[in-house]
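Can anyone check this?
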Amino acid sequence: MTWNKTPLGIRLIIGWCIFGTVVFLIKGKEEAIGGFILITWLYFLPYVTATKRHLKDASSIGIVNLFLGWTIIGWVLSLAKAVSGTAQVEDTAP
């Protein structure tokens, strides 16, 4: 298998690992951990957005994001669904 035939998601994961290693070697452990936290937060941004907006299907957005987010298309679709979904209306009637 050549690099050009490698799926984009796999290339991104390899790139993140190389980036984390380089940052660790150049800057140290604290910056590498900070970068890992930032990348993880960005990866789960669609789920965080859906949860903060109190969407009914926030858990399904989270599952799609977890398993298909690495494909970039899955991540973009999850984010689009999280942003465009209608929020739950809280019933505050006594």
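Reply from J.R.: I decoded it. The CA atoms of residues 5 and 76 lie 22 Å apart.
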